[in-house]
Amino acid sequence: MTATPDPLATVTTLTTNQDLDPQRLREAFGIFPTGVVAVAAEVDGEPVGLAASSFTSVSLDPPLVSFSVANTSKTWPTLRRAAHLGVTILASHQGTICRQLAGPVEERFAGIGLHTTEDGAVLLDEGLARFDCSIHDEVVAGDHTLVLLRLHSVENADTSLPLVFHRSGFGRLEATA
Ligand SMILES: Cc1cc2nc3c(=O)[nH]c(=O)nc-3n(C[C@H](O)[C@H](O)[C@H](O)COP(=O)(O)O)c2cc1C
């Protein structure tokens, strides 16, 4: 009789209480590929916003999505004042726009095609899907705040490929046959 190999025998033991330094964590988190969204609104007559790869779907009923924002963000205290926020899922060709949305505040929206809803949500042209949202809840979670957004409308007409963020760089999905 042949012995069945123990699958656990090949698993590397994880050290407990190791130093989870931020750089090591950032690299480990970056192994998980994500899309990227623009979260933006008009506040005091100006578009404000940022790029976020922490976006995820949360609930269908009620319709909720989330993203997490660093507690050091200079933009979030202003952005959260908006009645409605726009979330745009970026397309594969919008890597430069993504970097711009994470760069100097005064140039974030320079030359970017966008429109603003009556409620002040700012939505980017050429995104794959656009959500009109309002803040449902904010939960402080360590050095970030988890923001739950309630959806009011969705538009997803574009079927082209999304921008993919992976290991601190941009990639793209390969369409399979
Ligand atoms: C691809 C990408 C993804 C990002 N994702 C997030 C995120 O999920 N949460 C966050 O707080 N900042 C994220 N940032 C950084 C913000 O876009 C922005 O640079 C940061 O909030 C600093 O600007 P601020 O002080 O004006 O908020 C990301 C940046 C890039 C380039």
From TrEMBL:
One Pfam family here: Flavin_Reduct
Gene3D superfamilies given in the database record: Electron Transport, Fmn-binding Protein, Chain A (2.30.110.10)
Alphabetized SUPFAM superfamilies for the sequence: FMN-binding split barrel
EC category name: oxidoreductase
Signal peptide segment: none
Keyword Oxidoreductase in record: yes
One Gene Ontology MF term: oxidoreductase activity
Domain Flavin reductase like, first and last residues per copy: 29-172
EC code(s) of this entry: 1.-.-.-
UniProt keywords, alphabetically: Oxidoreductase
InterPro entries associated with the record: Flavin_Rdtase-like_dom, NADH-dep_flavin_reductase, Split_barrel_FMN-bd
Family: Belongs to the non-flavoprotein flavin reductase family.
Name under which the protein is recorded: Flavin reductase family protein
Gene source species: Nocardioides abyssi
